[in-house]
Protein backbone atom coordinates (compact mmCIF):
# COMPACT_ATOMS: atom_id res chain seq x y z
CA UNK A 1 0.00 0.00 0.00
CA UNK A 2 1.34 3.41 -0.90
CA UNK A 3 1.92 5.97 1.82
CA UNK A 4 -1.02 8.28 2.35
CA UNK A 5 -3.36 6.45 -0.03
CA UNK A 6 -6.68 5.16 1.24
CA UNK A 7 -7.07 1.61 -0.03
CA UNK A 8 -10.24 0.57 1.77
CA UNK A 9 -13.35 2.25 3.02
CA UNK A 10 -14.63 0.20 5.92
CA UNK A 11 -18.25 0.29 7.01
CA UNK A 12 -20.31 0.11 10.17
CA UNK A 13 -23.70 1.75 10.02
CA UNK A 14 -23.88 4.69 10.54
CA UNK A 15 -20.08 4.88 10.43
CA UNK A 16 -17.78 4.64 7.45
CA UNK A 17 -14.13 4.21 8.46
CA UNK A 18 -11.03 4.68 6.37
CA UNK A 19 -7.76 2.93 7.13
CA UNK A 20 -4.41 4.51 6.28
CA UNK A 21 -1.20 2.51 6.34
CA UNK A 22 0.73 5.45 7.80
CA UNK A 23 0.12 8.92 9.19
CA UNK A 24 2.54 11.83 9.24
CA UNK A 25 0.83 15.01 10.37
CA UNK A 26 3.85 17.24 9.72
CA UNK A 27 5.23 15.51 6.60
CA UNK A 28 7.08 18.11 4.55
CA UNK A 29 7.14 20.75 7.30
CA UNK A 30 10.73 21.85 8.01
CA UNK A 31 12.01 20.88 11.47
CA UNK A 32 8.71 19.19 12.45
CA UNK A 33 8.69 16.53 9.69
CA UNK A 34 9.07 13.43 11.92
CA UNK A 35 6.77 14.62 14.70
CA UNK A 36 3.24 13.29 14.59
CA UNK A 37 4.19 10.14 12.67
CA UNK A 38 2.54 6.83 13.54
CA UNK A 39 2.42 3.62 11.50
CA UNK A 40 -1.32 3.62 10.80
CA UNK A 41 -4.48 5.63 11.27
CA UNK A 42 -8.25 5.20 11.26
CA UNK A 43 -10.57 8.09 10.45
CA UNK A 44 -14.18 8.14 9.45
CA UNK A 45 -17.41 9.84 8.59
CA UNK A 46 -20.77 9.41 10.28
CA UNK A 47 -24.24 9.79 8.80
CA UNK A 48 -27.33 10.51 10.92
CA UNK A 49 -30.87 10.25 9.56
CA UNK A 50 -33.37 12.29 11.53
CA UNK A 51 -37.04 11.27 12.06
CA UNK A 52 -38.10 13.90 9.47
CA UNK A 53 -35.80 12.27 6.85
CA UNK A 54 -33.15 15.00 6.84
CA UNK A 55 -29.56 13.78 6.90
CA UNK A 56 -26.62 15.09 8.93
CA UNK A 57 -22.95 14.27 8.46
CA UNK A 58 -19.69 14.74 10.37
CA UNK A 59 -16.12 13.52 10.05
CA UNK A 60 -13.61 12.34 12.63
CA UNK A 61 -10.83 14.82 13.22
CA UNK A 62 -8.22 13.93 15.82
CA UNK A 63 -9.94 14.53 19.18
CA UNK A 64 -13.42 15.29 17.93
CA UNK A 65 -15.73 15.60 14.95
CA UNK A 66 -15.95 18.32 12.32
CA UNK A 67 -18.32 19.37 9.61
CA UNK A 68 -16.32 22.24 8.14
CA UNK A 69 -12.62 23.06 7.93
CA UNK A 70 -10.70 26.19 8.78
CA UNK A 71 -9.19 28.00 11.71
CA UNK A 72 -12.64 28.54 13.19
CA UNK A 73 -14.99 25.61 13.38
CA UNK A 74 -12.48 22.79 13.56
CA UNK A 75 -9.19 23.54 15.27
CA UNK A 76 -10.48 23.37 18.85
CA UNK A 77 -11.99 19.95 18.23
CA UNK A 78 -8.75 18.81 16.59
CA UNK A 79 -6.72 19.98 19.57
CA UNK A 80 -9.14 18.58 22.14
CA UNK A 81 -9.84 22.02 23.66
CA UNK A 82 -13.43 21.51 24.77
CA UNK A 83 -13.94 24.99 26.25
CA UNK A 84 -13.12 26.70 22.94
CA UNK A 85 -15.15 24.15 20.96
CA UNK A 86 -18.13 24.72 23.27
CA UNK A 87 -17.78 28.52 22.91
CA UNK A 88 -17.66 28.18 19.09
CA UNK A 89 -20.87 26.15 19.23
CA UNK A 90 -22.54 28.63 21.61
CA UNK A 91 -22.01 31.58 19.24
CA UNK A 92 -22.80 29.65 16.05
CA UNK A 93 -19.30 29.31 14.57
CA UNK A 94 -19.51 25.55 14.76
CA UNK A 95 -22.40 23.12 14.47
CA UNK A 96 -23.20 21.24 17.68
CA UNK A 97 -20.85 18.29 18.18
CA UNK A 98 -19.55 18.65 14.61
CA UNK A 99 -22.82 17.66 12.92
CA UNK A 100 -23.85 19.55 9.79
CA UNK A 101 -25.95 19.03 6.69
CA UNK A 102 -25.02 16.08 4.50
CA UNK A 103 -22.65 17.17 1.71
CA UNK A 104 -21.85 13.79 0.09
CA UNK A 105 -18.18 14.64 0.72
CA UNK A 106 -15.43 13.44 2.98
CA UNK A 107 -12.48 15.81 2.67
CA UNK A 108 -9.29 14.44 4.18
CA UNK A 109 -6.25 16.46 5.27
CA UNK A 110 -2.96 15.23 3.88
CA UNK A 111 -0.73 13.51 6.41
CA UNK A 112 -2.94 13.73 9.48
CA UNK A 113 -6.05 12.32 7.76
CA UNK A 114 -8.27 14.63 9.83
CA UNK A 115 -11.58 15.00 8.07
CA UNK A 116 -14.36 17.45 7.37
CA UNK A 117 -17.44 17.28 5.19
CA UNK A 118 -17.60 20.81 3.78
CA UNK A 119 -15.21 23.19 2.09
CA UNK A 120 -12.99 22.86 -0.93
CA UNK A 121 -11.78 19.35 -1.75
CA UNK A 122 -8.07 18.92 -2.39
CA UNK A 123 -8.09 17.34 -5.80
CA UNK A 124 -4.88 15.38 -5.25
CA UNK A 125 -6.68 13.47 -2.45
CA UNK A 126 -9.73 12.34 -4.43
CA UNK A 127 -10.55 8.64 -4.22
CA UNK A 128 -12.71 7.52 -7.12
CA UNK A 129 -15.75 5.36 -6.43
CA UNK A 130 -14.24 2.30 -8.16
CA UNK A 131 -11.29 2.48 -5.72
CA UNK A 132 -13.53 2.25 -2.64
CA UNK A 133 -14.19 -1.19 -1.17
CA UNK A 134 -16.81 -1.65 1.53
CA UNK A 135 -15.97 -4.28 4.13
CA UNK A 136 -18.21 -5.01 7.14
CA UNK A 137 -16.02 -4.36 10.18
CA UNK A 138 -17.93 -6.64 12.54
CA UNK A 139 -16.35 -9.68 10.88
CA UNK A 140 -12.89 -8.09 10.88
CA UNK A 141 -13.26 -7.24 14.59
CA UNK A 142 -14.18 -10.85 15.41
CA UNK A 143 -11.47 -12.50 13.34
CA UNK A 144 -8.37 -10.29 13.40
CA UNK A 145 -5.52 -10.47 15.84
CA UNK A 146 -3.69 -7.63 14.06
CA UNK A 147 -2.30 -4.94 16.31
CA UNK A 148 -2.72 -1.36 15.17
CA UNK A 149 -0.80 1.74 16.35
CA UNK A 150 -4.09 3.63 16.55
CA UNK A 151 -7.14 1.90 18.04
CA UNK A 152 -9.31 0.35 15.34
CA UNK A 153 -12.95 1.49 15.14
CA UNK A 154 -14.37 -1.46 17.12
CA UNK A 155 -12.31 -0.34 20.14
CA UNK A 156 -13.33 3.32 19.89
CA UNK A 157 -16.01 4.99 22.00
CA UNK A 158 -17.77 6.14 18.80
CA UNK A 159 -18.35 2.49 17.84
CA UNK A 160 -20.64 2.06 20.87
CA UNK A 161 -22.09 5.59 21.00
CA UNK A 162 -22.68 7.25 17.60
CA UNK A 163 -23.58 10.59 19.25
CA UNK A 164 -20.38 10.82 21.30
CA UNK A 165 -18.06 13.83 21.17
CA UNK A 166 -15.06 11.49 21.57
CA UNK A 167 -13.10 9.85 18.78
CA UNK A 168 -10.93 7.68 21.04
Q: Topology of this structure?
A:
Blueprint: E1 8-12, E2 15-20, E3 23-24, E4 37-38, E5 41-49, E6 55-61, E7 64-66, H1 75-79, H2 82-90, E8 100-101, E9 107-108, E10 115-116, E11 134-136, H3 137-143, H4 157-160
Parallel strand pairs: 1-11
Antiparallel strand pairs: 1-2, 2-5, 3-4, 5-6, 6-7, 6-8, 9-10
Characterise the protein shown here:
- The chain is an alpha+beta fold.
- It has one domain (about 10-160).
- The protein is about 15% helix and about 25% strand.
- It has four helices and eleven strands.
- The chain has helices spanning about 75-80, 80-90, 135-145, 155-160; strands spanning about 10, 15-20, 25, 35-40, 40-50, 55-60, 65, 100, 105-110, 115, 135.
- Strands 1, 2, 5, 6, 7, 8 and 11 form a seven-stranded mixed sheet that branches.
- Strand 9 and strand 10 form a beta hairpin.
- The protein is globular, with a radius of gyration of 16 Å.
- It starts with 7 loop residues before the first strand and ends in an 8-residue tail after the last helix.
- Mean pLDDT is about 75; it is low at about 1-10.
- Overall tally of domains: 1
Which H/E pattern describes the elements? EEEEEEEHHEEEEHH
Shape: globular
Low-confidence stretches: 1-9
Give the class from helix and strand content and strand pairing. alpha+beta
Task: Please give the alpha-carbon distance between the first and last residues.
Answer: 25 Å
